[in-house]
Amino acid sequence: MTFECPLCNSFAAIELVCHICESIPLVDQGREADFYDDYSPYEPIESVKQNDGYQDKAHECPHVLACPTCGMSDVYLIEEWMT
Q1: Taxonomically, which superkingdom (predicted)?
Q2: What is the pTM of this model?
């Protein structure tokens, strides 16, 4: 049994409201781990997940979501889907 992030794999789009200005939708900026250094986006996802500081027991993928209206950005844990 494997789990995959619906945002990383384009299975679904995010539809969250900004908690600052209530604008919709927030824009997915990608996995948080992709911002660690220049080579992070090219590392295998599973190896990065072992060192990202989040417990993988819940099968969640940390994504940076940003509001195009007010500029707020935050990390949201996206529930991975069983495939």
Answers
A1: Bacteria
A2: 0.79
